[in-house]
Amino acid sequence: MEFKTSKSSSNIGVVITGVDLSEPLNNDVINEIHNLWVNNYVAIFPNQKLDHNSYADFAKQFGSYGSEPYIGTMKSQPHIVELRRKANETSSPFGGTWHSDWSFQESPPSATMLHSKIVPPVGGDTLFANTALAYDELSLELKEKVKGLNAFHSAKLPYAKDGFYALENEKRTLKIKPSNKANEAYLHPLVRVHKDTKRKSLFINPVYTIGVEGMSEVDAFNLLSELFEHMLQDKYIYRHSWKPNMLIMWDNRSVMHMAEGGYDGHERLMHRITLAGETPLKI
Ligand code: SIN
Fold first, then answer.
1. What percent of the chain has pLDDT over 90?
2. pTM across the whole model
3. pLDDT grade for 10, boundaries at 50, 70 and 90
């Protein structure tokens, strides 16, 4: 097989073929995939049949596993989260609002991987927004305004005992574990620098970012709303449509993502793994 790549038509995404992810990879291939991933934000591998252990073994070649708070992992493979939404479910799709995974952790995950097992015939796309390009194209005035700011991240909106997932838990196959710990908040630089590419990106998202250090609630809300409106323009967004046995790996340091619904009456099943990241670097 020959290692081949093709870029998506948007500013996010590279499709990689000619590599069998169920086999151990040599260091050159690992480095090549790593570079393609961090420079294109989402690496897409079609037609990859992986059982639980070969999936976990593939992931481990790119870093250590992340820790999964508030949701359960599989009994047979403790690093995989099974994201199943049954055909008769009426809950909102898990991850259905723009976010960067576990950004409330001290060291949020660098990568998230999803492997598609059951893909509905309609809907169920995953959307990605390029937060590095969004930073590059901020007005000079906004770049000046956000310089040196830190933002508060917290899991409370979805995962507190009265969070939006807790209210839907009975309807959902994926069991969420709401907790008082979700009310804690963690400060991260609003603009972070990528460890490998050195690119800056806006490290905020509508689910977990709840305030800005040193700003009143109203001022922080206004600033965050202005930034989110900028970041979620169509020109920064890539829509990923799934086929079964696709593995994708995205860089939480440079993209936000969300899971779209639109497949009520059909099952969707994805297996997810996160990889541990670093404490976000300041400018
Ligand atoms: C997630 O936010 O991790 C889920 C994304 C998806 O299911 O498309």
1. 91
2. 0.96
3. confident
Residue nearest (by alpha carbon) to ligand 1 atom 7: 259
Is residue 8 within 8 A of residue 130, CB to CB? The reply is no
Instruction: Locate 137 and state its tokens.
Output: 């194209």
Ligand 1 atom at shortest distance from the alpha carbon of 96: 2
Q: How far apart are CA 231 and CA 204, in angstroms?
A: 10
116-172 pLDDT, tens per residue?
A: 999 999 999 999 999 999 999 999 999 999 999 999 999 999 999 999 898 887 788
Ligand 1 centroid–CA 123 distance in Å is 13
Residue with CA closest to ligand 1 atom 4 = 95
Spell out which residues line ligand 1, taking CB within 6 angstroms: 83, 94-95, 112, 114, 126, 257, 259, 270, 272
Q: Rounded mean pLDDT of the chain? A: 96
Determine the Cα–Cα distance for residues 141 and 88; give it in Å rounded to an integer. 49
- For residue 272, the CA-to-ligand 1 centroid distance in Å is 8
Q: What is the CATH number of the domain that holds 74?
A: 3.60.130.10
User: Which residue range(s) make up the domain with 124?
Assistant: 70-240+252-275
Residue 267 lies in a domain: yes
3-state secondary structure of 15: strand
State how far the Cα of 162 lies from the Cα of 179, in Å rounded to an integer.
9
Ramachandran angles phi, psi of 263, nearest 5° = -130, 30
